């Protein structure tokens, strides 16, 4: 879907060191250890990280969500590992950094208020906050090209996205229930709104009205690897020219090579695990056992 930037992103200048994250309860040191262990395992299977500036031809046959640690900003950044087979059969990989995001829907006419609140409230967690015009399939006559303004929150990593999502979901639910009540009992809601305006004023009332205008979350449940592949048009089973590092921002880290059509012969290990389970239930690691023959 086409997007139009209605406002430039607000970058976060107050970068803080990462001490503890919600990645499975792992501390900073354990996240670093996990990255090193993943790198060692890939090296064992021949997937050395390509760090060169020159273009290298490779056939993409696997992807894996990952993260990298930015030494300059002292932060973890979400990334996608791409695994390639080269023209001569060698194996290598590169990491593509891409910021996860989701959209926040506001009441019509209150988009700027919600944008101001979110950009200030999550300044240390969001990489950027933008106003984006997108097609809304829920609008009547949406086939006519009707569009709506959403607030896009971009994050450094999935951890921050999950934290903010969990914080906003109850707000959206509460506001949706309040909106249904207002539609069913318009007189009562009018009296309640007038009473609140009389009793509360100033900055607190403004913040409350901004929060009350948050009515929807969109694309918050798109898996990270799918998000990156959709946005960057990454497709497994095709040839690409890739670079481990970029000389400048005008270069692309990978370029599709449609003229290359001959397929390599990858070695694939396929396996299936059979296990016990309760009737009409999915297997769980806590109670079910792997069946050995």
From TrEMBL:
Q: Does the keyword Transferase apply?
A: yes
EC number in record? 2.7.7.7
Q: Enzyme class, one word?
A: transferase
Biological processes annotated in GO: base-excision repair, gap-filling; DNA replication proofreading; leading strand elongation; mitotic cell cycle; nucleotide-excision repair, DNA gap filling
GO CC, alphabetical? epsilon DNA polymerase complex
Q: Which reaction does it catalyse?
A: DNA(n) + a 2'-deoxyribonucleoside 5'-triphosphate = DNA(n+1) + diphosphate
Major place of residence: nucleus
Q: Which cofactor does it need?
A: [4Fe-4S] cluster
Q: Where in the cell is it found?
A: Nucleus
GO molecular-function term, one example from the UniProt record? zinc ion binding
Q: Keywords assigned by UniProt?
A: 4Fe-4S, DNA replication, DNA-binding, DNA-directed DNA polymerase, Iron, Iron-sulfur, Metal-binding, Nucleotidyltransferase, Nucleus, Transferase, Zinc, Zinc-finger
| DNA-directed DNA polymerase family B exonuclease domain residues | 216-291
In terms of SUPFAM superfamilies, this protein maps to:
Ribonuclease H-like
Matches recorded under InterPro entries: DNA-dir_DNA_pol_B_exonuc, POL2, RNaseH-like_sf
Which residues, if any, are the signal sequence? Answer: none
Q: What does this protein do?
A: DNA polymerase II participates in chromosomal DNA replication.
Give the family per the record.
Belongs to the DNA polymerase type-B family.
Q: What is this protein called?
A: DNA polymerase epsilon catalytic subunit
Organism (species) = Didymodactylos carnosus
């Amino acid at each position: 879907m086409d997007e139009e930037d209605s406002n430039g992103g607000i970058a976060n200048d107050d970068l803080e060191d990462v001490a503890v994250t919600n990645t499975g309860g792992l501390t900073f040191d354990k996240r670093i250890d996990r990255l090193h262990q993943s790198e060692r395992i890939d090296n064992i299977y021949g997937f050395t990280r390509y760090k060169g500036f020159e273009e290298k031809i490779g056939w993409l046959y696997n992807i894996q969500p990952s993260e990298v640690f930015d030494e300059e900003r002292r932060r973890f950044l979400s990334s996608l590992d791409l695994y390639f087979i080269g023209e001569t059969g060698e194996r290598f990989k590169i990491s593509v950094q891409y910021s996860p995001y989701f959209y926040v829907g506001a009441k019509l006419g209150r988009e700027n208020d919600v944008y101001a609140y979110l950009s200030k409230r999550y300044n240390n967690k969001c990489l950027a906050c933008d106003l984006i015009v997108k097609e809304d399939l829920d609008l009547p006559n949406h086939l006519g090209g009707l569009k709506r303004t959403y607030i896009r929150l971009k994050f450094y990593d999935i951890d921050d996205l999950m934290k903010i999502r969990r914080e906003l979901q109850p707000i959206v639910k509460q506001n949706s229930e309040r909106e249904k009540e207002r539609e069913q009992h318009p007189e009562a809601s009018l009296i309640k709104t007038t009473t609140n305006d009389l009793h509360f004023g100033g900055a607190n009332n403004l913040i409350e009205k901004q929060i009350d205008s948050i009515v929807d979350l969109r694309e918050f449940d798109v898996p990270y690897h799918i998000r990156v592949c959709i946005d960057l048009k990454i497709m497994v089973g095709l040839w690409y020219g890739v670079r481990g590092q970029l000389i400048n921002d005008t270069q692309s880290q990978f370029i599709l090579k449609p003229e290359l059509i001959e397929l390599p012969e990858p070695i694939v290990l396929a396996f299936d695990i059979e296990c016990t389970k309760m009737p009409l239930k999915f297997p769980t690691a806590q109670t079910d056992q792997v069946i050995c023959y």
